[in-house]
Structure formats: C-alpha cells, structure tokens
Design goal:
The chain is of the alpha/beta class. α7 links the parallel β4 and β5. The radius of gyration is 17 Å and the shape is globular. GO terms for molecular function: O-methyltransferase activity; RNA methyltransferase activity.
Length: about 230
C-alpha cells in the first residue's frame, strides 16, 4: 500500500468481502497438480479479512470434486496491516501473511520460497482485488502493464477486480483535500475510461491469458475478470 493510499478510506476491504466472494463462480477453479495442495496468492491483502473468506470459499468450491488442502499467501506493502492480519489469523497452518512490495526486485525471493514449499512453479490462483488502480496511479500505464505481467507470470489463473474510472477521480479528489497535491502520474495516463477493457487487453495481448469468465457487476458496479493461462 502506498503512502497516498494510506491516507484514504479502505472500506473496499472491510465492508463488502462477502459480496465479492458471492460474485465468484464455483466451477472454474482447477489445479495443474490434483494430487498436491491448492496454492493461492492474495495481492494487496490489507488486514486479511478478504483473504480469510477466500480461503473458506476455495475449500467449499474445490471439495465438490475432491477434498483438497487450500493454502493461501497474503501479501501487502503495509507492515502494520500484515501484523494485524497475522494476529487475527484463524488458520495459521493454511494462511500465511508476508510484507511485500510486489513490484520490488526482491519480491521473487519470498514468492519462490513459498512455491517451493509446495513443489509448485506457479500459484494455482492469484487474486487482485482493488489493487490495480493504486498500481496505475502510482506507477503509470507502464507500471500497470508490468504489474499484470508479473502477476500472470506466477499464476495459472488470475482474478482481478478493476476499479471504475470514477474511483480514480475520487481518489484524486481525496488526496488533494488531505495533502494539497495530486497523484503525479494521473495526467499522463492513457489507459483511461473503461479500465476493465484496458486490463483485459493487457491480459490477452501482453500476458497470453484467455478469458474464463467475467462476472456481473456487484452493487458497487464492479465486476471480476477471471482469466487463465492459455
């Protein structure tokens, strides 16, 4: 989480975790190694509220085929939020939290070590709920492409919840009110308007992923993009 984001309300994660999981379909989750544990990554996990619910969802969704142990890694840039997630973790044997800057050069060490524990080369699923806007605002168009390429490089399947363009405007307005300045890269962005369409194009053209499904809008008018490796 960036310094700018820390100044803004974070109700994204706190108030609607049940609604978000309710959007997820039950029949699309798959493992490349059915005999091994199902390993997932939650990028921008905040204090872990949604991570906990995602773990329970996957347990229920995958048990329809065969019982499978679900292991999730939640990562966030904010060490205070990670400490809070660890303190409140109801399943420390199945859910792990690490402080990690996903765009940093040393991120591979943490992620690779986690994958090696489960004899995996990639995560079965990577979740990116309400993080792409912050990447986009703080790192620009190129940063958004880099983030998605890195996420897809370690994923067999990815779930992305893009924020609407009006959320960008709201974030800009709140930052200007609180700090008297705007996101420096905001006016340079070319991926404006339909952010979901831009992300879908990046996933197909830059990451070689295919669409599995796109959910209906939730009450916040957001949809989930679910893509998989071709």
């Amino acid at each position: 989480m960036s310094e700018e984001e820390a100044q803004l309300p974070c109700k994204d994660r706190q108030e609607d975790k049940t609604d978000r999981v309710r959007q997820l379909p039950c029949g699309v989750w798959r493992s490349t190694h059915p005999d091994r544990k199902y390993v997932g990554l939650d990028v921008g996990c905040n204090a872990g509220d949604l991570t906990f619910v995602l773990h329970d969802f996957l347990e229920n969704a995958l048990s329809a085929d065969q019982p499978k142990e679900i292991c999730l890694l939640g990562v966030d840039l904010d060490p205070i939020l990670i400490e809070r997630a660890r303190e409140r973790n109801p399943r420390p044997d199945r859910i792990i939290f690490e402080c990690l800057d996903f765009l940093a050069e040393d991120r591979n060490r943490t992620l690779d070590e986690h994958l090696r524990r489960f004899e995996k080369s990639r995560f079965d699923i990577v979740f990116c709920f309400s993080v792409t806007m912050w990447i986009h605002l703080n790192h620009g168009d190129d940063g958004l492409v880099e983030f998605l390429r890195k996420a897809c490089s370690i994923a067999n399947m990815i779930v992305i919840e893009p924020q609407l363009w009006k959320c960008y405007r709201n974030a800009s307005r709140r930052l200007r009110r609180s700090k008297g300045e705007d996101f420096p890269l905001l006016k340079t962005l070319k991926f404006t308007g339909d952010t979901a369409a831009h992300i879908e194009r990046i996933l197909t053209e830059f990451c070689n992923f295919r669409r599995v499904t796109v959910t209906r809008d939730n009450e916040w008018k957001r949809r989930l993009l679910i893509y998989a490796r071709t």
